[in-house]
Write a structure and sequence with these properties.
Structural class: mainly beta
Number of strands: 35
Distance between the termini: 196 Å
Shape: rod-shaped
Strand content: 35-45%
Helix content: 10-25%
């Protein structure tokens, strides 16, 4: 190996070699440019037709195949000259123009459910080793196409029996969907994969399936809102905000609205008859909102409609009611207290109290609770309470067992035929004939000027049961003012206390009939005695006046 003598000498020798290489490259470029100018001049001299094609530094003989290969080159193609040479040597390994699929007719197909649909894809320039496929992309749920059919050469694969595939010499490809369903809505694509360039060309078909409206139920459809034994009943808790969603489908999309069921005169909570929406909101729901609700969906006038009914139930704290809150029974009789229970949800627990003391007796079912006292004693006259509880709250009802008398009923006329006297008559349905009782009558004259009442003495009438005229009583009130209105309060009293009061009004006469001639010389009537057995005030006044007159005469 020759070694350089000194740094500068070696540097000079290396630089000279680089210059020689650069000069050789420039010389080659100049020779290629000159050759291209000569070929261009010859082509011009021959009327513009050249026997060669120059691509970069590559010179290729001109021919129809060379023109075809050059036309397939992309813009700014890398190593274009070599690719054209390969194309001329083996034309089957290069892409063929016209391999893009093209369709006949529109790209959107509309069909009714149950009909058959055909897609036609026309392909030109397809080679035997190229691959053809049909794919399906559903409207929702899948991001890319699902393979339905694929063919390469003579090998074909089909993934579903619902489709029919036919091809005509690799140029016309047909796909038929037999009896389309709504699930077939989506995009269908015919795809060609070139075995030479691995390029993919495709054409899309959009299928729109029309189908009638259908309501698939109402949401919510899961527990705790729905019970398995009652699929069309939806439960909500009282005071919560309830939402009903009508699950209507159809293409074209139907108009959906809510209303109360047929025959119901009640409006929706909003006060409207209809709610034009798939969603119905019931705010702060209560028992008053219970009932049957109807969801209706329509596809235009006279096209298609569907109706779905759902029952709304409101779960609440127990609602209790007593059959008889005040019970009057005589000592020794049997008493039954019944509490009616409306509880949703079940179960509900019922407890009985006497005053504040819890009782261990009492029987209950789902809808009522009973407390029975077989032989009533004096200590059983008391207040009783039935307390009912479920998981949402507590309610109660009150009872009173008493031996006090019932209320009498006055049957007298409201207009008295007398000026100063009136007879009161009343009936009394006595449940306890064994207990002694009296009737007390308060009567007062009305003050028309002030609208109030003037107090006057009362009558206390002790009466015994009359088997000849049962439940019928009367007494006479004296010393009344003529042409005046009186208010009466009548009630019975026994050993257990005062009974219910009966109120009544009557009016005395303004004028009585005159006495006949045969009555002028009749002796004066004996002094009158009030209903309590004492002499009345007017009689006493008359006696005193007579005594005073006699003393003056003496």
């Amino acid at each position: 190996m020759h070694r350089c003598a000194g740094y500068w000498y070696c540097l000079y020798q290396g630089r000279r070699k680089e210059v020689f290489r650069e000069r050789g490259l420039y010389t080659t470029m100049i020779l290629q440019a000159g050759l291209m100018l000569i070929l261009a001049y010859l082509a011009h001299a021959q009327g513009g037709k050249s026997e060669h094609i120059i691509i970069g530094s590559t010179i290729i003989p001109n021919s129809p195949l060379a023109d075809k290969c050059v036309s397939q080159l992309g813009r700014d193609e890398y190593n274009a000259g070599s690719k054209v040479k390969d194309c001329i040597r083996d034309p089957d390994t290069t892409p063929t123009p016209g391999a893009l699929p093209s369709t006949s007719g529109g790209k959107t197909v509309t069909s009714n459910e149950g009909e058959s649909v055909e897609f036609v894809c026309t392909v030109t320039g397809m080679k035997i080793n190229d691959t053809f496929a049909w794919t399906f992309t559903p409207k929702v749920g899948v991001a890319r196409g699902l393979p339905l059919f694929q063919k390469q050469g003579e090998n074909a694969q089909q993934t579903s029996p619902w489709y029919t595939f036919v091809d005509n010499n690799r140029t016309v490809w047909r796909m038929t969907i037999n009896k389309v369903q709504r699930r077939d809505t989506g995009v269908y694509s015919c795809v060609v994969l070139s075995s030479r360039s691995q390029e993919i060309q495709s054409e899309n078909f959009t299928l729109v399936v029309r189908y009638p409206v259908q309501i698939n139920g109402v949401s919510p459809r899961d527990p705790p809102y729905v019970r398995p034994e009652e699929p069309n009943v939806i439960y909500f808790n009282e005071t919560e905000n309830a939402t009903l969603l009508c699950l209507s489908v159809g293409n074209p999309i139907p108009d959906t609205f809510w209303r109360r069921a047929e025959g119901s005169r009640r409006r929706l909570q909003s006060g409207e008859i209809f709610s034009m929406s798939k969603t119905l909101n019931i705010y702060n729901i209560s028992v008053d909102d219970e009932g049957i609700y109807t969801c209706e969906a329509r596809q235009g006038e006279g096209i298609s409609r569907d109706v779905y009914n759902v029952t709304v139930r409101v779960q609440h704290a127990p609602i209790v009611d007593e059959k008889q809150d005040l019970v009057r029974k005589r000592k020794g009789s049997s008493v039954e207290l019944v509490c009616i229970i409306d509880s949703d949800p079940l179960p509900a627990t019922a407890l009985w109290y006497k005053g504040d003391n819890l009782l261990t007796v009492g029987t209950s079912t789902q809808h009522r609770s009973r407390l029975v006292i077989t032989k009533l004693s004096h200590k059983d006259y008391h207040n009783y309470t039935c307390v009912v509880t479920n998981i949402l709250g507590t309610s109660s009802c009150q009872f009173v067992i008493t031996g006090r008398p019932v209320k009498p009923t006055i049957i007298s006329s409201h207009l008295s035929p007398k000026m100063h006297v009136n007879t009161l008559e009343w009936t009394y349905e006595d449940y306890d004939t064994e207990t002694e009782k009296t009737f007390r009558i308060y009567y007062q004259q009305k003050n028309h000027k002030k609208g109030g009442l003037k107090g006057m003495p009362f009558y206390e009438v002790g009466l015994k049961f009359n088997p000849q005229k049962p439940m019928h009583y009367n007494t006479t009130i004296h010393d009344l003012r003529a042409n005046s209105t009186y208010s009466v309060v009548l009630f019975a009293v026994n050993a257990y206390g005062q009974g219910d009061e009966e109120e009544f009004e009557f009016r005395t006469a303004a004028v009585e009939r005159k006495k006949g001639r045969d009555q002028k010389n009749q002796p004066t009537a004996a002094p009158q005695v009030g209903g309590n057995g004492h002499m009345t005030s007017s009689t006493m006044a008359a006696i005193l006046m007579s005594i005073c007159s006699a003393l003056l005469l003496l």
